[in-house]
Amino acid sequence: MEELAGWKFLRAADKLVRRVARTVIATEILLDFHSWERMRMLRFGSLLTLVWVIVCVGCVSGPSERAGGKRRGPVRIGFSLDTLKEERWQRDRDLFVAKAKELGAETLVQAANSDDALQLQQAENLLTQGIDVLVVVPHNAETSAAIVELAKKQGVPVISYDRLIRHADVDLYVSFDNLRVGEMQARYLLDRAPAGNYVLIEGAPTDNNAHLYHEGHMKVLGPAVKSGKVKIVLEQWAREWLPSEALKHTENALTQANNQVAAVVASNDGLAGGVVQALEEQGLAGKVLVSGQDADLAALQRIVEGKQTMTVYKPIKLLAERAAEAAVRLARGEKVETNGVLNNGRKDVPSILLDPIVVDKNNIVDTVVKDGFHRLEDIYRNVPRDQWPRVASSRVVDSSSRAN
Prior knowledge:
This is Xylose-binding protein. Its main location: other. It comes from Pyrinomonas methylaliphatogenes. The protein has helices spanning 2-30, 36-58, 87-102, 116-128, 145-153, 178-192, 208-227, 243-256, 269-281, 297-304, 316-331, 365-369, 376-379, 390-403, and strands at 66-67, 70-71, 75-81, 105-111, 133-136, 158-161, 172-176, 196-202, 230-237, 263-266, 289-290, 311-313, 340-343, 348-354, 357-359. The chain is α/β, with parallel strands linked by helices. 49% of the residues lie in helices and 17% in strands. It has 14 helices and 15 strands. Helix 1 (2-30) runs antiparallel to helix 2 (36-58), helix 4 (116-128) runs parallel beside helix 5 (145-153) and helix 6 (178-192) packs parallel to helix 7. 41% of the residues are buried.
């Protein structure tokens, strides 16, 4: 009980220290030169408060004490997400929180609904709650630098999760090799349609990953375009990754090309859904190649129905768990093993880059089903039972018989 009381006291003291520090910073900004004496008095008073807190904390032997700069007790993680509207990000959240809990850490989650100002406000709120590390999925790669700056002022390390924050002192980047994702999408389509009209539906221009995907697309398609084999009839960015944007752009492309389109490079599965809708309206679904990314259930259903050609599967469990492990290690002052760096315009950010996987109708069972990412029954829901993969079908029969 004494140890628990000490822990509670320390957490309260930690909050007080942070509040006093913010007061001093705010005062330095708001007071002008002529108020120098007032500021000195305020800082002196704040210093006395800090000393008092430190002395009191020194009398408590709580589990959250640091020894040698390393945190011994429970870690508190702040997780700031751009959005939870898409299935993919709900999975990230759940898997991250579960792994952090397994490691003995608490995770505070906030989602900004793709609102830059709200995400900054939520990050500030997380920092006031005494977090030891901040993990950010940025809505805007540029403006999110302000979040990093806030965290740094409080000595809180920052992990950029899946999307890289630009022009900021980010401590670690954990993601998939997103340049390779773009290359995979374009290469898959080009191998099957080496000539003809192409449409490129890129992601949100505010998302650094969208630019990496585009770079990968052009790295593969560039030579074919230069030779004249491939013509890009339309290339557009989809605001906020909205499927409605993809629908609109694809409709425009089909009009411009008189429906003569060989392939549409859609940067993710949400956009692919908008593309397929436009193709269906013209009776072209299944006749035009369409890429995607994220292995969303709706996309996998379209693939087995023959409406979408492929997706890029990024094992989210691996990403979330590696990020959670890294967050706990950073909070404890321990070394994090990385396998690369990525420049964000300010620094070469130490990075953990994971391998993505191409998924089509031929390997769905051996990838997303095998990993438990989606169930075969759900993927093939709209397909006659006799068209299900034979081996996977027997597995479903076995599992259903066991349930009975």
